[in-house]
Amino acid sequence: MRNAVGGHMNSRAKGCRGEREWAARCREEGYEARRGQQFNGLDGEDVVGLPLIHCEVKRVQALNISGAMEQSKRDAKDKVPIVAHRKNGEKWMVTMLADDWFALYREWEMGKRE
């Protein structure tokens, strides 16, 4: 996408668009999610509204997933770090650490047995 001066849309604008898209996807699932930067100046929070989850959002064609996860881990504090990401024309995906995934899976599995 080109801007008025003939250059490409800057990565910040693309990032904001991706954050809005991910927040909208979370709202479709029933969560009151929104971009973190627009409220209270919450640095490091791309999207807020998923309890106990720190979302790092990437809306790019080529993603350094290891770098994105490191960024999410660094900013997560006491939350579970995830990277929500998608390429053009593809569905959203969520990447998380295996330890966190197994902890969530065990909780889900235990709920199914009761």
Please render the helix and strand layout as text.
Blueprint: H1 11-28, E1 34-35, E2 47-48, E3 53-58, H2 65-75, E4 80-85, E5 93-96, H3 98-113
Parallel strand pairs: 3-4
Antiparallel strand pairs: 1-2, 4-5
Regions with little confidence, pLDDT below 50 for 5+ residues: 1-7
Overall tally of structural domains: 1
**Which range best describes the helical content: under 10%, 10-25%, 25-40%, 40-55%, 55-70% or over 70%?**
25-40%
Average residue pLDDT: 88
Number of helices: 3
- Largest sheet geometry: 3 strands, mixed
Span from first to last CA? 51 Å
Coarse structural class = alpha+beta
Query: Strand tally, please?
Result: 5
- Specify the CATH class: Alpha Beta
CATH topology: Trna Endonuclease, Chain: A, domain 1
**CATH architecture label name:** 3-Layer(aba) Sandwich
For the largest beta sheet, what order do the strands appear in spatially? 3-4-5
**Morphology:** globular
Q: Give the SSE string.
A: HEEEHEEH
Report strand %: 15-25%
Rounded to an integer in angstroms, the radius of gyration calculated over CA atoms is: 15 Å
Question: Could you walk me through the main structural features you see in this protein, from its secondary elements to its overall organization?
Answer:
With 114 residues, the chain is an alpha+beta fold. The chain has a single domain, classed as Trna Endonuclease, Chain: A, domain 1 (3-Layer(aba) Sandwich), CATH 3.40.1350. It is 39% helix and 18% strand. It has helices at residues 11-28, 65-75, 98-113, and strands at 34-35, 47-48, 53-58, 80-85, 93-96. Strands 3-4-5 form a three-stranded mixed sheet. A hairpin with a 7-residue loop joins strand 4 (80-85) and strand 5 (93-96). The protein is globular and about 50 Å long.
